[in-house]
């Protein structure tokens, strides 16, 4: 593993500021057990050395195809699953090794919005009880009246009517439920919200509303967002920076404009060329990748992308490229940068 | 879906009948849940028989009358008399008490114990393997055989029958609860609660338990039905309640030798047992359909 704890690049604005969230060489390997008493027979290398940081008020999007480990990163940062190794620093304080009792008060600062608006709300609790749970857990209200007042404010924030608090989740549509989910994430006054495919399950029109709501809330409350998604069109709309993941590793990190205009990693290029264009007559050179994503149980040696990369050469099969700076705030993990053969637009193939 | 429009109240509205008369509501309920209605009706009938047994034209179920042995059904002895001259009708009606008490007690005890074991197993992963292997071991012994073995260790009494059947039923409940707990633990709303700083005991109380109760209730009805049958079998083979207690299994056991000359002695308790078990099973099926939204067939 050559992804040594790489130095997180300087945040886009201002130098020596401490990022709100810093993740260093995070790894999560799920053991594979074949049965009772028989030991571990292998590992799923779901997340294998991921580093990134998020500034206050910033949105970082984590993109990649399904199974690349992006959701596992989110869940590990939240300590819903325990990391195998690596560091997670919230406001400079390590939280990856804290015992549960010391972690609990810090959970107030980072919350989560899940993909499925139906299974993310307990069907047997009223909206008021759902939203009151974090408030009472962290002792943020002095009385029952106070709790109700705060719940009402939360519903205002996510543009739901106040009488919604008396209803059960099944009485709402998918978009409204997602608003409730967002209100729950806002309830403890979090600084960082991890949106795990938060809009992927919604209709296009509703999706736009929820994305706009998240942007508005970010401006209003100075939230930091870790936006995990596979939908690059939505990502382009909401994010400041983008980190592209492939098979448990980050292959490219850049400012949104830099990444969408001039992707440096072959995988990012292929990913971007797959985004549908709104104009049906528009022609574009699509990069069609061949083959499937290799199994995270036995990731390929060298560069993990070499099995599908149109530019792969010998070195890619032997040596894993490190994620390193190739421009201001732009990191990429590809041997082509060393070889100096990376062109702005590579192989052009008719779609 | 504009955020300003009032909250949709579509699916729940169907359940509201503000101005309907009572009779209309009953009819709607029967139409929507026929199995619950039929099962519930039959079960209530059995409970009424059991509770009001002394007032339903019965005589002492244990009174011997050697002069009137093995009489066929008549207007005096509706279900006839057995080999000792005891009134079969009285014995069958009083027998409902034993069956219902055994069924209810086993359902409650096995559910409570199974719920506890299932929760422990689902939440404390280190003991899960051990507990579940013990449960597998218990399950590999047929429950009748296990109950007979347990009864062989103790005196025949209703309490011991209840305990023996409960032990045999616990593995099924704990497996069910464990399965439900494991799937609920993965639910995003439980993960959100963990992220929101809710402590584990509170997560169990608020998020896990309420969502476990529906499948557990359904399972409890099946356990009640199977416990009644097990009790009858135990009594029939002489390993259950003492013969002096009029349970349906005992009545049938006593009538067995006379099956060819006096089939009514076996016939009536068998019919009552069948109806009761059917009623409980219908109720369970109906509850399952009503409580599990995935299986529910709406109007």
Helices and strands in order, then pairings?
The complex is a heterodimer of chains A (351) and B (299).
Chain A: E1 21-33, E2 40-54, E3 59-63, H1 70-77, E4 85-90, E5 93-94, H2 100-107, E6 110-113, H3 127-137, H4 144-157, H5 174-186, E7 192-196, H6 204-221, E8 224-229, H7 232-238, E9 241-246, E10 249-255, H8 256-261, H9 266-273, H10 314-318, E11 324-327, E12 330-332, H11 336-339
Parallel strand pairs in A: 3-8, 3-9, 6-7, 7-8
Antiparallel strand pairs in A: 1-2, 1-4, 4-5, 9-10, 10-12, 11-12
Helix pairs in contact in A: 3-4, 5-6
Chain B: H1 10-13, H2 22-32, H3 34-51, H4 88-123, H5 125-140, H6 143-153, H7 158-185, H8 188-195, H9 200-236, H10 248-256, H11 264-291
The strand count of chain B comes to: 0
Give me the CATH superfamily of chain B.
MetI-like
Cα distance spanning the termini of chain B = 27 Å
Q: How many alpha or pi helices of chain B?
A: 11
Percent range of helical residues of chain B: 55-70%
Short description:
The complex is a heterodimer of chains A (351) and B (299). With 351 residues, chain A is an alpha/beta fold.
Describe this structure in words.
The complex is a heterodimer of chains A (351) and B (299). Residues 1-15 and 344-351 of chain A have low confidence and may be disordered. Chain A has a domain at 21-109 and 191-339: 3-Layer(aba) Sandwich (Rossmann fold), CATH 3.40.50. Helix content of chain A is 29%, strand content 22%. Chain A is α/β, with parallel strands linked by helices. Chain A is globular and about 70 Å long. Chain B has one domain (33-291): Orthogonal Bundle (MetI-like fold), CATH 1.10.3720.10. Chain B has helices spanning 10-13, 22-32, 34-51, 88-123, 125-140, 143-153, 158-185, 188-195, 200-236, 248-256, 264-291. In chain B, helix 9 runs parallel beside helix 10 (248-256). The chains are: A alpha/beta (351), B mainly alpha (299). Chains A and B meet through helix 2, strand 6, helix 3, helix 5 and helix 6 of A and helix 1, helix 8 and helix 9 of B.
